[in-house]
Amino acid sequence: MSTGPALRKVGSHTSIHDAALNHALNLNDDLQDAIAENQMDEAMDISAQIIDIWENRIIEHANSEEESLYKEMSAHSEELAKRVIELTREHDILRVLLAQIKEVLQKEGKVTDEAVRKFDTLIIVDEVHNDYEMEALELFHK
């Protein structure tokens, strides 16, 4: 599978990341507000929206990267091949965290402190990942 032009360019790729991550971050803030106001039904609705962003935008984007861009990067150099292993592992961490959040919400039937911490952790891991990925993409173009 060939990589689309938006994934190959640092600027457009960064924009894709920023749009999805900022949406998730804003929803995390809304979640905190709903919890602070003891609006637990609203908190569950917001949690569902956050999960949707992660599954249908961020994780789907990660899947696309792994299916195309990462294969091209791995073939480019040994250094990039090592980075791709790390980047893929970070995607796996995001997937695990998301599965854990869904499990907690299903089991508890409400938004717990654990779920909130893991939503915040998703953001942190993805921020670090995105920076590292853009460094790798810049190396790919050298």
TrEMBL record:
Residues 27-123 form the Hemerythrin-like domain. Pfam families: Hemerythrin. This is Hemerythrin domain-containing protein. It comes from Candidatus Salinicoccus stercoripullorum.
